[in-house]
Specification:
It contains 13 helices and twelve strands. With 333 residues, the protein is of the alpha/beta class. Helix 3 crosses helix 4.
Length: 333
């Protein structure tokens, strides 16, 4: 629960606390037969990047019997100035009295900070335990549950894939944010995979976006042959800049979300995010039917996608091996 001295509390925070208190005293919403159930969507970024995932959630909810305008209302909230507008958005979410909030990535941490008592279903790229969202993956024990994109096995597979696609590489750069929950495990898995392949690793941590360009200059000085970007919200928001800098540095780059390859990186190998949000609909369905978030285990992605950006390959003067192209789920021409 939020705590602050009334004399120092800003109006947004005061109204948020009042709304939370009212929510706690009110009867459970939507329990009456035939009532329209309320679900909030808390997205981050521009509408074009958010919409495919919201559409995937809607479609899957429809298959489970939840139809907007009949028995379901989806309240759509989006942050375009994260994290500056998070507190105000969470205040509006609480005032809307949803029965469950579906959070996209970084917005989960905003719900944890400003309204930890609301049921939340998340798609989160970090380690939910390390981020204190849940106590354990098997039994969250909090009002949060959902799916984590973080899978150490996938990180190692990206290194293996880079070596297969580009057999001549000898040193790989890792660009990562050490403050991202679970990043240290991603790094350990990457270094272990690289050791087995006889590939050296140079680690370039960044604490803020101003350190991105200096990191690329350091990569060139280190004479790395390829780049692995650990995906998270901050990297996602700067994906076009990262792709441009990688091209300028003549570095084949790989990350873990499709939008990185779509923005110009050479490869993507990671979870299919649309499928994740389809899966999140099953969590929403179960909560609306009476399940509690603390009882629903956190799961990991079930489907992986490989994307090859041939435009980038041509710009870099690289020929992607045919077996790689055959295995690709999508090729960007």
């Amino acid at each position: 629960m939020l705590a602050a001295k009334p004399s120092r509390m800003n109006p947004i925070r005061r109204s948020l606390i009042a709304a939370l208190a009212a929510l706690g005293l009110a009867p459970a919403a939507g329990l009456a037969q035939g009532a329209v159930r309320r679900v909030a969507w808390f997205g981050v970024g521009s509408p074009d990047t958010e919409l495919p995932y919201l559409d995937a959630l809607r479609a899957s909810l429809g298959e489970l019997g939840w139809q907007e305008g009949r028995n379901l209302q989806i309240q759509n909230y989006r942050s375009t100035r994260a994290p500056e507008d998070f507190e105000a958005i969470v205040g509006r979410i609480v005032e809307g009295r949803p029965e469950v909030v579906v959070c996209q990535e970084f917005a989960t941490l905003a719900m944890q900070r400003y309204a930890p008592g609301l049921p939340v279903v998340f798609g989160f790229s970090g380690d939910p335990v390390e981020a204190n969202l849940v106590r354990t993956l098997a039994r969250p024990g909090t009002s949060f549950t959902g799916m984590s994109y973080l899978a150490s096995a996938l990180v190692g597979k990206r290194i293996e894939f880079l070596k297969e696609a580009l057999p001549g590489i000898r040193r790989i750069a890792i660009l990562a944010r050490p403050q991202h929950p679970g990043e240290h495990r991603e790094r350990e898995a990457s270094e272990e995979a690289a050791r087995k392949l006889g590939v050296a690793v140079s680690y370039f941590p960044i604490l803020n976006i101003e350190e991105i360009e200096p990191a690329f200059k350091a990569m060139q000085e280190a004479k790395v042959d390829a780049l692995v970007v650990f995906p998270d919200f901050i990297m996602f928001m700067n994906r076009q800049k990262l792709a441009r800098l990688a091209l300028e540095a003549r570095l084949p780059a790989i990350s873990g979300w499709s939008s990185f390859a779509e923005s110009g990186m050479l490869f993507n190998y990671g979870p299919n995010l649309r499928d994740i949000y389809r899966e999140l609909a099953t969590y929403v369905d179960r909560i609306l039917r009476g399940a509690k978030p603390h009882e629903l285990p956190v799961e990991f992605p079930r489907t992986i996608e490989l994307i090859v950006n041939l435009r980038t390959a041509r710009t870099l003067g690289l020929k992607v091996p045919q077996p790689i192209l055959v295995r690709a789920d999508r090729v960007i021409e």
